[in-house]
Design brief:
GO terms for molecular function: 5'-flap endonuclease activity; crossover junction DNA endonuclease activity; zinc ion binding. This protein has 410 residues and is of the alpha+beta class. The chain contains ten helices and twelve strands.
């Protein structure tokens, strides 16, 4: 229960995914896990760094990450998906419904009476084809089909197998669940397929830098609550007492009560049983905005605490450095700034400007380590080498705790 409570009192993770590993030595050896940092996790599985599941520490190395299911809004959701993907025979998402169970029991009883072999329930997949079939079924299930998740393929032959199965199966994945082609996958112009590739696992962005400009805008806009008003209900807004969402578009300053905007988005959808919005048109700028992005910003703004202040200080130092730096021009055309773009904007390499130390009035009482964000999410596998060690004193740096499940499909 403590883990569930902690998960709901922390910001939505910057990144959390489930992944499918395949042995480069023996392609039939597969492994399913979950992590907030796939590049680091892959290095652990391959023995490059300490950690990793025991069952991947064998002669099947090196492992490659061929599929990533990303976009989970909590660690718990990712772990639920991982468990269902690993154990389809025990998962209610892939198992039989109560009516199906009744019909199944009747069928088993009837066939047993006639001396026929009993019908067996779905068993855990061992092959790549079986894992992809179960993945497809999970994405069509009642619970997971409503989540804003995406499937990223890094291997062309794995994506080809996915396409073959997708064309054969009767069920269809919801349109908001996108397929991203990456790694060795060639471009595909099919509906529902994106080509927003990063190249490799190591280039996946796993921190909050993509929403830093959005965070800064929201904090600045909500700093003076006297004149704030909900765009929908026209009532005054108090960010300290109410949950308030801010439009992620850079030039839109529309704010709304969380419940007001949620009701508007749900009313505009054709899915009557949908409880959580996927996206909708902002009542201010009328552009389509993603609900998951606004919830990530809201959760970090209200639960980020010292980490939020630290990230804003780093952003402010970077902005001061950019303002003090000489303007670069090319053929008389100025390079557009982040202020003219829509969020989220990646500012990964521009957090600290060239004149970072020029403003003596800015003092950082919180050191923002490169891996500080990982204290907000934990992985699913147990680290090799025994139980986790406890410390009687608080360390000077954030200790990364890795909790992985030792489940394997080799």
């Amino acid at each position: 229960m403590a883990d569930v409570y902690d998960d709901h009192t922390k910001p939505i993770p910057a990144f959390y995914c489930c992944y499918l590993l395949r042995s480069s030595v023996r392609h039939s050896s597969l492994y399913i896990g979950s992590t907030p940092h796939p590049h680091r996790r892959l290095a652990q599985h391959n023995g490059v760094s300490k950690g990793g599941a025991r069952k991947t520490a064998n002669d099947k190395r090196p492992w490659e990450m061929v599929v990533i299911v990303e976009g989970f809004m909590s660690r718990i959701a990712a772990l639920q998906f991982e468990w269902a993907w690993q154990k389809p025979d025990k998962s209610r998402h892939l198992g039989l419904s109560e009516d199906d169970k009744t019909a199944h029991e009747a069928q088993v009883h009837a066939e047993s009476a006639r001396g026929k072999r009993k019908v067996r329930a779905r068993r855990p997949a061992r092959s790549l084809k079986g894992h992809l079939e179960n993945l497809h079924a999970l994405l069509r299930s009642t619970y997971f089909s409503s989540l804003p998740i995406r499937i990223r393929f890094f291997s062309a032959d794995v994506y080809q197998l996915w396409r073959i199965w997708s064309d054969r199966v009767d069920g269809v994945i919801p349109l908001h669940i996108r397929v991203i082609l990456d790694g060795s996958c060639a471009k595909d112009n099919r509906p529902g397929v994106d080509d927003t590739r990063v190249g490799s696992v190591e280039h996946i962005q796993v921190d909050y830098s993509k929403i830093q400009d959005y965070l800064e805008k929201a904090v600045f806009q909500l700093d003076d609550p006297e004149d704030l008003q909900c765009k929908l209900c026209q009532a005054p807004v108090d960010p300290k007492e109410e949950l308030v969402v801010v439009c992620p578009q850079a030039r839109c300053y529309c704010i709304n009560h969380l419940l007001c905007l949620s009701a508007r988005f749900l009313d505009s959808t054709k899915e009557l049983e949908q409880l959580i919005p996927i996206s909708g048109k902002c009542p201010g700028c009328h552009k389509v905005v993603q609900w998951s992005l606004m919830m990530q910003e809201l959760s970090f703004r209200t639960r980020g605490g010292k980490e939020l202040q630290a990230i804003l200080r780093k952003k402010k130092r970077g902005d001061l450095g950019i303002k003090n730096a000489p303007r670069e021009e090319s053929d008389g055309v100025n390079t557009p700034t982040a202020e003219s773009q829509d969020f989220p904007v990646s500012v990964g390499g521009s957090e600290e400007g060239p004149n970072e130390g020029s403003d003596e009035s800015i003092q950082d009482d919180i050191l923002l380590d490169d891996d500080w964000v990982e204290s907000l999410a934990f992985e699913s596998d147990t680290e090799i080498g025994g139980p986790l060690k406890t410390h009687s004193t608080i360390p000077s740096r954030i200790e990364i705790v890795i909790e992985d499940s030792d489940c394997d499909d080799t």
